[in-house]
Amino acid sequence: MDLSKQDHQRIAAAVAKAESTTAGEIYCVLAPEVSDYKETPLVWAAASALVLPALALFAGLRPHMLTDLFGGWTVAHETASDATIFSALSIYIAIQAVVFVTAALVVSLGPVRRALTPGPLKTARVHQAAMQQFLSHGLHLTEGRTGVLLFASVADHRAEVVADEGIYAKAPREVWDEVVDLLIAGLKKGDAASGFVAAVERSGQILAEYVPPRAGNPNELPDGLVVLPRPDRG
Fold first, then answer.
1. How far apart are CA 139 and CA 143, in angstroms?
2. d(Cα 194, Cα 35) in Å, to the nearest integer?
3. pTM of the shown model
4. What are residue 191's phi and psi, to 5 degrees?
5. Which helix or strand (DSSP H or E) is residue 161 part of?
6. Among 23, 96, 128, 167, which has the minimal tally of Cβ within 10 Å of its Cβ?
7. For position 71, what pLDDT does the model report?
8. Each residue's pLDDT tens digit, 39-91
9. Would you call 220 helix, strand, or coil by DSSP?
10. Angle, vertex CA 48, rays to CA 43 and CA 50, nearest 5
């Protein structure tokens, strides 16, 4: 999701305007995605390798059928049954390996990987990334502890507001759900800039009500939008 110079200017202007009416500090961060979810292909591959061959057995596939299918020798003598079992198990393990590799390759495709990653894991990763941004940019160090982070991850389809304790002590947490909704609405339309502008304007209204400006009202944080790089896929 590319943003133009004008988009960045709109967001910065909205932040500056909102902060002029409050002692709060608003900081905006947009991430293309917060994680590559490397564990997702491995989990799905392992589950597929364990479950699919077993389901095939329950569906009627038998060891001797595996041996016949792959051209194994048919042992007529009863004392040679161990060799038959060993051959069938070897083929079964080979099938598991093929299923594992195939599933891992398919789920490694970006859209498939994201679609098959559990929602709670995405939510947790987005929250973790938001908290990292909150702390790394010093929002917890503002005078009066009035920093507010607006964070969104495009590929994860998630947004979050992180406010410092000075904000939560005055403004109820529930009001920030409105801010998240506005931000997500813009992202759904493919217009991240408008989403951030609307979220910033609503944040300014909330902060103006609960955290009025103080004497001097210094601007402690940059007003512009920060766009994060994609995670290193190593």
1. 9
2. 25
3. 0.78
4. -120, 80
5. strand 158-163
6. 128
7. 54
8. 888 888 898 888 877 776 676 655 555 555 555 555 555 555 556 666 667 77
9. coil
10. 100
